[in-house]
């Protein structure tokens, strides 16, 4: 039984073809193409309003050099939200529960922010490794600690997203299994458990959106340090 709980996180395949590629490409098909007309439908209007508000909020603390990342970060945010939300549907697969995929997003983007900082302002970028006013005996230790914390950042990005989504999916499956087991024996308890499952599902919808936002927000903070 315990093995079957984790089967939902295995990458599905059909006739030897991995279906994770279809799951990754699906979000881009669902969104409507913006129209060049002055008057568009409500869906495109809401989509444009959401993207504009999010981009303005994300780019607010960044200078003009960081605004070049607006399109990339906004696209990544929408992509992660859509994948996370689609993964909550029955009989679907959530690619962002795979640590390899999340690290594939986190490592290149984090490395790009570090390279930009080393290229544009190397003194300031290296200065982050040593806080101002550090006692001389602590300088070697602090440099090592700050360097380790710098290289842990992409790992923390990927593990945070993976762990939160994986834990939520496991909780939903465990409680749903408990509802089916308790229904013939204790219907009242099963109904109460189903109510908890409904509330947990609403919480997971919020977690799916919040974790995508946190992922992109932390990337923008790393970018802020280097531009």
From TrEMBL:
Please list the reactions this protein catalyses. H(+)(in) = H(+)(out)
Q: How is this protein positioned relative to the membrane?
A: Multi-pass membrane protein
Q: What is its main location?
A: mitochondrion
Check the record and name the SUPFAM superfamilies matching this protein: F1F0 ATP synthase subunit A (SSF81336)
Q: Which residues form a coiled coil?
A: none
Q: Indicate the family of this protein.
A: Belongs to the ATPase A chain family.
**Subunit structure, briefly?**
Component of the ATP synthase complex composed at least of ATP5F1A/subunit alpha, ATP5F1B/subunit beta, ATP5MC1/subunit c (homooctomer), MT-ATP6/subunit a, MT-ATP8/subunit 8, ATP5ME/subunit e, ATP5MF/subunit f, ATP5MG/subunit g, ATP5MK/subunit k, ATP5MJ/subunit j, ATP5F1C/subunit gamma, ATP5F1D/subunit delta, ATP5F1E/subunit epsilon, ATP5PF/subunit F6, ATP5PB/subunit b, ATP5PD/subunit d, ATP5PO/subunit OSCP.
Q: What is this protein called?
A: ATP synthase subunit a
Q: Which organism is it from?
A: Percocypris pingi
């Amino acid at each position: 039984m315990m093995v079957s709980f984790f089967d939902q996180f295995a990458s599905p395949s059909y006739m030897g073809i991995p279906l994770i590629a279809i799951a990754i490409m699906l979000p881009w098909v669902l969104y409507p193409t913006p129209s060049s007309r002055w008057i568009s439908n409500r869906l495109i209007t809401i989509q444009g309003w959401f993207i504009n508000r999010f981009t303005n909020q994300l780019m607010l603390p960044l200078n003009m050099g960081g605004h070049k990342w607006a399109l990339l970060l906004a696209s990544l945010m929408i992509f992660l939200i859509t994948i996370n939300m689609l993964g909550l549907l029955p009989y679907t697969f959530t690619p962002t529960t795979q640590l390899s995929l999340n690290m594939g997003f986190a490592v290149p983007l984090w490395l790009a922010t570090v390279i930009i900082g080393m290229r544009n302002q190397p003194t300031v970028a290296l200065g982050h490794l040593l806080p101002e006013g550090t006692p001389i005996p602590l300088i070697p230790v602090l440099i090592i600690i700050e360097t380790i914390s710098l290289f842990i950042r992409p790992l923390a990005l990927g593990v945070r997203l993976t762990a939160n989504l994986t834990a939520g999916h496991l909780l939903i499956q465990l409680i749903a299994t408990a509802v089916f087991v308790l229904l013939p024996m204790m219907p009242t308890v099963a109904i109460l458990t189903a109510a908890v499952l409904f509330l947990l599902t609403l919480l997971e919808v919020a977690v799916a959106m919040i974790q995508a936002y946190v992922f992109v927000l932390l990337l923008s903070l790393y970018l802020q340090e280097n531009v």
